[in-house]
Write a structure and sequence with these properties.
- By secondary structure, the chain is an alpha+beta fold.
- It folds into 2 domains: 69 residues, no CATH class; 55 residues, no CATH class.
- It has a 3-stranded antiparallel β-sheet, with helices on one face. The protein has a two-stranded antiparallel ribbon with strand order 2-3. A two-stranded parallel sheet has the order 6-7.
- Helix 2 links the parallel strand 6 and strand 7.
- It is elongated and about 65 Å long.
C-alpha cells in the first residue's frame, strides 16, 4: 500500500461560496471524519488541511487514512500579573488588538503554568471572569 498526502484547496463558486477544487479528495476527507471523529468537521474553518490517502497505481487517492487541520492562533506564552486591575487592562488591550486584526470570534491561547509556585494571585477568579476554556493542546517542536 502506498500512502501520499494531499492538501485540500477551495475556490469561489462565483456566487460568494467556497467549494473544494478536488471534489473526490474532499469526499474522502468528509467520509473519513464522519467515520473516525465524534464531531463534524468544517474544513473551511482551517487555514490548511492535509489528507493522508492510500493511492492506486496512478497516484489517485482511493481511501483517506488520516487528516491534519491547521489553524493559526494568537498565543500568549507569558501571562503574569500581580494586580486585578492590571489583568483587566492587559486582557482588554489584547482583545482590542486581536479584534482590530480580524480575529473577532476566534480563540487565542494563554499559557498558565500548572505547577508554578508563583502563579498569579486570583488566577482562578480571572479565568472564570474571562471564561477561559481548557485547550487540550500539547506542544511539539518543529524539526
Amino acid at each position: 500500500m502506498k500512502v501520499q498526502v494531499f492538501q485540500l484547496f477551495f475556490k469561489s463558486d462565483g456566487a460568494g461560496a467556497l467549494i473544494p477544487t478536488d471534489g473526490e479528495l474532499y469526499a474522502l476527507a468528509v467520509k473519513y471524519a464522519a467515520e473516525n471523529m465524534s464531531t463534524k468537521v468544517d474544513y473551511l474553518d482551517y487555514k490548511n488541511t492535509w489528507v493522508a490517502c492510500e493511492v492506486d497505481g496512478d497516484g489517485t487517492p482511493t481511501r483517506a487514512l488520516g487528516i491534519l487541520c491547521m489553524q493559526l492562533r494568537p498565543d500568549f506564552p507569558i501571562c503574569r500579573f500581580t494586580d486585578n486591575a492590571a489583568v483587566a487592562k492587559l486582557v482588554q488591550r489584547a482583545n482590542d488588538y486581536l479584534h482590530d486584526n480580524g480575529a473577532r470570534g476566534q480563540f487565542a491561547l494563554i499559557h498558565i503554568a500548572q505547577d508554578d509556585p508563583q502563579r498569579c494571585p486570583n488566577y482562578l477568579e480571572w479565568m472564570k471572569a474571562f471564561e477561559l476554556e481548557p485547550a487540550e493542546r500539547w506542544a511539539i517542536r518543529v524539526r
